[in-house]
Task: inverse folding
């Protein structure tokens, strides 16, 4: 993703509440609010090894949902946030019946997927 440093500064840089997922979505939405645009170049080709840099885990799936819900609430409002949250609560309730590893995710969603339940808040910084 490329954009001018001045535009990045104008939108306040990265939202530090977003950790690991949906940074690009947030940046693009904020750039659009100041009249800037993000463009898609359909001729560009790349290989994306999905999940190659992180191990698959329920913790990452939890973070993905927390970040998505945060961005939806931030940019689209409470109604859309609640619709998506309820959808996820129902979906992962039934998923957890089949795959018990999703039970932890469902509990996070029942607690409204707050930022305090994300990996960011659990990070330990070593001096």
Result:
């Amino acid at each position: 993703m490329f954009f001018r440093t001045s535009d990045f500064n104008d939108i306040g840089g990265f939202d530090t509440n977003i950790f690991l997922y949906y940074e690009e979505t947030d940046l693009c939405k904020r750039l659009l609010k100041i009249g800037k645009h993000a463009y898609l170049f359909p001729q560009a080709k790349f290989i994306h090894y999905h999940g190659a840099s992180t191990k698959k885990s329920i913790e990452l799936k939890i973070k993905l949902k927390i970040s998505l819900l945060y961005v939806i609430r931030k940019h689209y409002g409470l109604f859309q946030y609640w619709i998506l949250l309820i959808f996820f609560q129902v979906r992962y309730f039934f998923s957890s019946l089949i795959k018990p590893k999703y039970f932890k995710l469902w509990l996070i969603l029942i607690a409204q997927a707050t930022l305090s339940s994300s990996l960011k808040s659990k990070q330990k910084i070593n001096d």
Q: What stands out?
A: The CA atoms of residues 28 and 85 lie 23 Å apart. Residues 5-39+53-119 form one domain.
